[in-house]
Structures are given as C-alpha cells and as structure tokens.
Amino acid sequence: MKIDIQIVSKIDTTIAYEKLSHPESGGVCVFIGSVRNVTQNEKVEALDFEAYEKMAIKEMETIANDALKKWKLNKVIMHHVVGKKQIEDPVVMVGASSAHRDACFEACRYLIDTLKERVPIWKKEFFENKTVWVSSHP
Amino acid sequence: MNILLFGIAKDIVGESVLTIEGELQPPKTVGELKNYIVQLHPKFGELSSLAIAVNSNYANDSMKVNDGDEIAIIPPVSGG
Asked: Does the keyword RNA-binding apply (chain B) (predicted)?
C-alpha cells in the first residue's frame, strides 16, 4: 500500500521510517506536530482533539491521493491523534518518500497544510482558567 | 433528521446530536439547513465559518438533504 492513513490515540514517531522507506526512494520527509506550551503569550496546559473520524479518514485519503498525482511519491503517511494530549506529545505525523528530495519536501508541506485546512478534526486548548476551541471565532 | 455535532457545535447545542422533527417546512437544502441552525442557535452565526457535511463529504449550499443522509455540522477545523 502506498498510503497509510490513521487516527490513533497515540502517535508512534519511531515507525515513520519503516512506514516510508521504499527501495526506489532516496529521500524521506516527515513533519511531526506537537503540543506547544504557549499560545499568544498564554500558558497552555494540554490539548484535546476530537475528530469526525469517518470523514477525517476520507479527507486524508483524498489529500494523500492528490499528493500522489502532484508528485512522484512512493509512500505517503498521515497519522493524527484524538484525545487529550500533554505538552510535547506528538499530535500529527505526515510524510512522504520519493526518489529525490524535492518531491517529498514539497509533498510533506502540502500534506500538513491541506490537513489543517480541510480535515474535520478540532482541538480544544486548556489554559489555567479556561478552555478554547481553536480557530472557532474570527 | 439527526445532525451530528462536533467541537464547539456540541458545546453550542449542549448535545452531540441535533434532532429536527415536527417542522412544517423542514430544511430541504444545505443552505436552508444552515439558516435554520443559525436561527435556532444564533451562536453559530458568530463562528469564523460554518460548513455542512452530507454523507461525510463537504456539501455546498444548493445540495439537497434527504432523511436518510448522514448530516454533520462542521465548525472551523483546527487539526494538526
């Protein structure tokens, strides 16, 4: 399988290479997003992710297939978490492998940027005294 | 008609499913459904965006909604 899409309770970053390596690939590019301890100068304590899983998988498959059409890729992965995550926990891992590095660098950027635009997953930020659904209000 | 709710949509309605029943003129399109939802819960009108998914695909305002469809409110997404 060229494409590996998963929604998981915990991301295993150690499997990235194994998932993406391929005899015809000379380059592997991976982006890992993680929980940062601050947003706009406010201390973040945790994040909680919720997904419309059926649609999120479908959207990620579309994005991965679009990437395969745009670049010559041998493997694509898109993994995203659901549930409550602590500072420094990985929450998203996307990657691509290709014969030469340009294709996988560009594809990796496309995968994460498009995921953030379209995939129905929501994160709630936990601050000391409040919680906020990210991006919900202008 | 049952509408699935996620993220802030669940907080606005206070449930994980919004049920529309007993309406003389139930919404027939995605656009009508959006208007209906905003009238019922004006806080939806304050969001950065409001999308509807029909059968787990993003739907445009002219798309018809039928009783058997799986419908979901998609508030602004924030994955990654």
From this structure: no
Instruction: Give me the count of residues in chain B.
Output: 80
> Six-digit token pair at A37?
């301890």
- To the nearest whole Å, the CA of A79 is away from the closest chain B CA by 10
Facing residue for A115 by CB, picked from B47, B57, B79: B79
pLDDT digits (tens, 9 = 90+) for B21-38: 888 888 999 999 999 999
Sketch the domain layout of chain A as residue ranges.
3-131
> Does the domain spanning A3-131 belong to CATH 3.90.1170.40?
yes
Angle between helices A101-118 and A53-70 (to 10 degrees): 150
Tokens of A105: 């660098």
What does the alpha-carbon distance between residue A91 and residue A124 come to, in Å, rounded to a whole number?
13
Residues A12-66 pLDDT 10s? 999 999 999 999 999 999 999 999 999 999 999 999 999 999 999 999 999 999 9
Contact A116, B27 (CB under 8 A): no
- B2-74: CATH, from 3.40.50.2300, 2.40.320.10, 3.10.20.30, 3.40.50.300: 3.10.20.30
In angstroms, what CA-CA distances link B12 with A47, A92, A117? 19, 27, 22
- Contact B1/A at CB under 8 A: no
